[in-house]
Write a structure and sequence with these properties.
Blueprint: E1 10-14, E2 21-26, E3 44-50, H1 54-65, E4 71-77, H2 86-98, E5 106-111, H3 113-125, E6 132-136, H4 139-145, E7 150-155, E8 158-165, E9 170-174, H5 183-194, H6 196-200, H7 202-216, H8 220-240, H9 255-265, H10 272-289, H11 295-307, H12 322-330, E10 342-346, E11 352-356, H13 359-369
Parallel strand pairs: 2-9, 3-4, 3-5, 5-6, 6-9
Antiparallel strand pairs: 1-2, 7-8, 10-11
Helix pairs in contact: 2-3, 4-5, 4-8, 5-7, 5-10, 7-8, 9-10, 9-12, 10-11, 10-13, 12-13
């Protein structure tokens, strides 16, 4: 698999009829006014960011948008998954209403997945829908959460359980923003990249194994290729199943176990990508116990996840009945039907399926994969 070493900007199109939009991938995009030239006109733009990202990039984005929007407002939210909640979402509505923003106002989500999800949900809700743009600044957001129109806030009883499907006008993946990403956040993003291999593209998994050190070193050519291929796979899936009625659920490989870890530990204790990485190991073991893959595949995937700097052993959520606590949390998963947990499993390398599994087998997996 060849990597484009020229680092010319790339474009991936999400094909959704009248809701189609481009994903732009390259360097120097965030601060370039021409990046935003095709967006809807408006008198006001609101940049929604957080206290970590805004000092780094808000001034650049604000200057670029000033060429198109007479008034560019900025809202800094508190940083972290713990603040992906209803009170923080209300801060966005407060800013929109306090500034008399109308239904043409364009929202810009500048930050990681938390900022993107909440800004998208606010855009879907304010005046029953205003335009918004994703400007993701983390690797995880660039390859996953900013693409496909899923928006949500968390609830104490379940992650991302309150939200809406609402597509952005544009996604701007500026590779330069990854230069300020802490190593732990970079590894978390690699989890969402790795998942695309087992579920859809084994040659990409081969490439990841060969290039994981380059990705960990933030080599621009490697990152550009990994982001583009991840977005291409997600665009293909979303284009066929926008609202997750079937195929799109495969993109949640590792997420059922991972969300249970995040909820059970308390939001923010484990990063989302760390939960997904460990969750993929657990889902692979479950696939093996159900006869869908062999242990060689499980071990191969586990080694890659470990090389990416991600945990491969789940935490103990309950000292008395750990597996029972995991099962309790997973029954709140959005893929569950009538209380039956449906898992994304690997149905042979490069293929995924969504199906239930016996509680007894799931318990065995949890007991063997947690420490």
């Amino acid at each position: 698999m060849q990597v484009n070493s020229s680092l010319m900007p790339a474009q991936v199109q999400i094909e959704l009829a009248d809701r189609s939009y481009p994903i732009l991938i390259g360097s120097g995009l965030l601060a370039d006014a021409s990046t935003y030239q095709h967006l809807p006109p408006a008198s006001t733009a609101l940049i929604v960011s957080n206290t970590t990202v805004a000092p780094l990039y808000a001034a650049q984005l604000r200057a670029a948008l000033g060429a198109r929007y007479p008034k560019v407002l900025l809202l800094d939210l508190p940083d972290g998954e713990a603040h992906k909640d209803w009170p923080t979402l209300q801060l966005i509505f407060d800013a929109l209403l306090a500034n008399s923003c109308d239904r043409k106002t364009v929202l810009f989500a500048l930050g990681g997945g938390v900022v993107g999800d909440m800004t998208g949900f606010a855009a879907a809700s304010y005046m029953r829908g205003v335009p918004f743009v994703q400007v993701p600044t983390t690797l995880l957001a660039q390859v996953d959460s900013s693409v496909g129109g899923k928006t949500a806030v968390n609830h104490p009883l379940g992650k991302n359980m309150i939200g809406a499907f609402y597509q952005p006008q544009l996604v701007v993946c500026d590779l330069d923003t990854l230069k300020t990403l802490p190593p732990r956040e970079l590894s978390a993003g690699l989890a969402e990249i790795i998942k695309y291999g087992p579920i859809a593209d084994m040659p990409f998994l081969d490439w990841l194994e060969a290039n994981i050190d380059a990705l960990l070193a933030s080599e621009p050519a490697a990152l550009a290729h990994a982001i583009q291929r991840s977005c291409e796979i997600k665009a293909h899936v979303v284009g066929q199943d926008e609202r997750e009625q079937g195929l799109r659920a495969i993109l949640n490989f590792g997420h059922t176990f991972g969300h249970a870890i995040e909820s059970g530990m308390g939001y923010g204790q484990w990063l989302h990508g760390e939960g997904v990485g460990c969750g993929m190991v657990m889902a692979a073991h479950l696939s093996q116990r159900l006869g869908l893959v062999d242990m060689a595949f499980v071990n191969r995937l586990t080694r890659l996840i470990q090389r990416a700097g991600l945990p491969v052993k789940g935490p103990i959520l309950d000292a008395v009945d750990n597996a029972g606590r995991y099962l309790e949390l997973m029954r709140v998963d959005k893929k569950s039907e009538a209380g039956e947990i449906r898992f994304v499993l690997i149905d042979g390398p490069g293929r995924a399926t969504v199906r239930p599994a016996p509680d007894a087998v799931v318990r065995e997996v949890i007991n063997s994969c947690c420490q």
